[in-house]
């Protein structure tokens, strides 16, 4: 149970096919009072199976997994609409890998060579709703006219939520329309605001109307 006045811990699954990396991350996070590793897996298939009955706040997912790369697993997570944030983990700051993580809707990107405190900060910031990518990727994103492309980063379910949000529906009404829990609708709305760079529902609706009118 969570003590009164204390925030619940950030629950995390670690997915990497190198036991040394798993144990290193687990040890690192064990010292953080606001974080808890609830499971570890060594393959993408195992992660997807685990996510069927364990619903963590966040997954740290290795880009390269033994049964297919982590991007395939990330795509499956998004395709299935699983309400979990994903930080991709890589051994190198490869440009194509960074781009792949962004296009497949990762929430963050961390390097195995990053200082431990930076990795912890990345996980915590992503859990709190931020998009966290290396500076080189942010410069690429910020230097391009991506405002009109951000809607394309939404999953099909998130686009459904955005459409209903733009009609003035509350989270409870959206949940009823889509036959999901209100907490799931809230999770989708938070992700939508984050991905669109909107600070509130009104700004998100403005992006939606502008995008649909331009088609």
Question: Describe it for me?
Answer:
- The structure is a single chain.
- By secondary structure, the chain is α/β, with parallel strands linked by helices.
- The protein has two domains: about 10-140, Rossmann fold (3-Layer(aba) Sandwich), CATH 3.40.50; about 145-210, Arc Repressor Mutant, subunit A, CATH 1.10.10.10.
- The protein is about 50% helix and about 15% strand.
- It contains ten helices and five strands.
- The protein has helices at about 20-30, 45-50, 70-80, 95-105, 115-125, 135-140, 155-165, 170-180, 180-195, 200-215; strands at about 10-15, 35-40, 60, 85-90, 110.
- A five-stranded parallel β-sheet has the order 2-1-3-4-5, sandwiched between helices.
- Helix 1 links the parallel strand 1 (about 10-15) and strand 2 (about 35-40).
- Helix 7 (about 155-165) packs across helix 9, helix 7 (about 155-165) crosses helix 10 and helix 9 packs across helix 10 (about 200-215).
Topology:
Layout lengths: L9 E6 L3 H11 L5 E7 L2 H7 L7 E5 L7 H10 L5 E6 L4 H9 L4 E4 L4 H12 L7 H8 L13 H11 L4 H8 L3 H15 L4 H14 L1
Parallel strand pairs: 1-2, 1-3, 3-4, 4-5
In short:
With 215 residues, the protein is α/β, with parallel strands linked by helices.
Helix percent band: 40-55%
> What is the H/E string?
EHEHEHEHEHHHHHH
Q: How much strand content do the residues show?
A: 5-15%
Shape: globular
Q: What is the alpha-carbon Rg in Å?
A: 17 Å
Q: Which class do the helix and strand fractions yield?
A: alpha/beta
Quickly count the helices: 10
Q: How many strands, which pairing sense, and closed or not: the largest β-sheet? A: 5 strands, parallel
Low-confidence stretches: 141-148
* Average pLDDT figure: 83
Domains counted in the coordinates: how many?
A: 2
> Which strands sit side by side, in order, in the main sheet?
2-1-3-4-5
At the third CATH level, what is the topology name of the largest domain?
Rossmann fold
Total number of β-strand segments?
A: 5
Task: Just give the CATH class of the largest domain.
Answer: Alpha Beta
| Distance separating the two termini | 49 Å
Which architecture of the largest domain would the CATH scheme give at its second level? 3-Layer(aba) Sandwich
Q: Give the CATH H-level superfamily of the largest domain.
A: Response regulator
């Amino acid at each position: 149970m969570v003590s009164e006045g204390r925030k619940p811990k950030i629950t995390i699954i670690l997915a990497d096919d190198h036991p040394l990396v798993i144990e290193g991350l687990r040890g690192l996070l064990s010292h953080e009072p606001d974080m808890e590793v609830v499971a570890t897996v060594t393959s993408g298939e195992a992660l997807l199976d685990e996510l069927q009955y364990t619903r963590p706040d966040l997954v740290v997912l290795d880009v390269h997994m033994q049964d297919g790369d982590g991007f395939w697993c990330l795509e499956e997570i998004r395709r299935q609409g699983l309400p979990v944030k994903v930080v991709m983990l890589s051994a190198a700051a490869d440009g194509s890998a960074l781009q792949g993580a962004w296009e497949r809707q990762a929430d963050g990107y961390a390097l195995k060579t990053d200082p431990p405190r930076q990795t912890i900060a990345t996980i915590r910031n992503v859990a709190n709703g931020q998009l966290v990518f290396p500076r080189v990727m942010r410069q690429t994103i910020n230097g391009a006219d991506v405002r009109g492309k951000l809607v394309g980063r939404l999953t099909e379910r998130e686009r459904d939520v955005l459409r209903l949000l733009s009609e003035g529906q509350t989270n409870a009404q959206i949940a009823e329309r889509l036959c999901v829990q209100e907490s799931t609708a809230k999770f989708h709305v938070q992700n939508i605001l984050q991905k669109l760079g909107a600070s509130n529902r009104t700004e998100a609706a403005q992006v939606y109307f502008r995008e649909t009118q331009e088609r």
